[in-house]
Design a protein that fits this description.
single chain; 298 residues; alpha/beta; Spore Coat Polysaccharide Biosynthesis Protein SpsA, Chain A; 9-stranded mixed beta sheet; 12 helices; transferase; Glycosyltransferase; glycosyltransferase; Glyco_trans_2-like; Nucleotide-diphossugar_trans
């Protein structure tokens, strides 16, 4: 079932065993997708191992850690109409890439498809799946699943051209909630985002992670997105909600300090979303309040 419609893009940094496991799963997919890996400056022999064990993988070595921008670098090389992201500790199930491409083929105004996430090795659903499945965002009748206000990069297939036109991932956000800004810009360009329950990606979290730094970046990036795209009233309300709900610790303080220090460039780049897109984001605010503690703790 070779399928030429989708390229898989993976970014990695010092996770050689996890990446090799992921590439093993991807190489066994019936779709036989092209795979591009951006090695974000690994020092553990990752690039050499990929070249040795997976010579068919396109390997990019920018020489430093670009964070999510490593995906942008890879998408420049994509020649297929669709691009699927996954992390170095996640992998797509057989048939899911073809299923996502079928949905994108069928619906010309659909910009992205996010899959169900299964946590390994237990085989249980990630708690975020319920939020995706129960999204309060209203969508058109033709949409094949729930409309989303954002997406999860490690579990999503997008239109390559839509990604490029929207500008990809913002270079200042690095990693941690970096999808929210891009998702809003895709919606502003007229694209719809959906969740597809019949598609699956597996995630076995790497033990090599700095949870505190990721939390700092997640809070900071949420603030930056809010200030960059939301009108003044909703932006102030969302900022106060975050201040009330994030843990009272040095990580949260650092996140707010980094966000505030960037106000000069944030104000220069500020571009408020169209009213239609903003109205969808307002519907997400109650769910965001309920999930903030889970998202930014630990």
């Amino acid at each position: 079932m070779t399928d030429p419609r989708t390229t898989v893009v993976v970014i990695t940094h010092n996770r050689r065993p996890e990446l090799l496991r992921t590439l093993g799963h991807l190489s066994a997919l019936p779709e036989r997708p092209p795979v591009i890996v951006t090695d974000n400056g690994s020092a553990d022999g990752t690039a050499e191992a990929v070249a040795r064990h997976h010579p068919g993988v396109r390997l990019l070595r920018p020489g430093r850690n670009l964070g999510a921008v490593g995906r942008n670098l890879a998408v420049r090389e994509v020649r297929t109409p669709y691009v699927a992201f996954c992390d170095d500790d996640s992998w797509w199930s057989p048939g899911s890439l073809a299923g996502a491409a079928d949905l994108l083929d069928r619906h010309p105004a659909l910009g992205s498809v996010t899959a169900r996430i299964i946590v390994e090795p237990d085989g249980t659903e990630d708690p975020i799946v319920r939020e995706l499945r129960d999204s309060p965002v209203p969508g058109p009748d033709w949409l094949p699943g729930p409309a989303l206000g954002s997406f999860l990069a490690a579990a999503t297939v997008l239109r390559t051209d839509a990604f490029r036109t929207a500008g990809g991932f913002h270079p200042r956000l690095w990693l941690g909630g970096e999808e929210e800004l891009l998702a809003a810009d895709l919606a502003a360009d007229g694209w719809w985002l959906t969740y597809a329950d019949h598609l699956t990606i597996h995630h076995q979290a790497s033990p090599v992670r700095d949870a505190t730094l990721r939390r700092v970046h997640g809070i900071r990036n949420t603030l930056w997105f809010t200030w960059l795209r939301r009108p003044a009233g909703p932006a102030l309300r969302r900022t106060l909600d975050l201040a009330r709900t994030v843990p009272r610790d040095t990580a949260s303080l650092r996140a707010f300090a980094e966000a505030a220090a960037a106000l000069p460039w944030v104000l220069r780049e500020r571009r408020v979303l169209p009213d239609e897109v903003e109205s969808r984001l307002r519907l997400l605010e109650p769910a965001q309040r309920n999930s903030t503690a889970r998202r930014y703790t630990g």
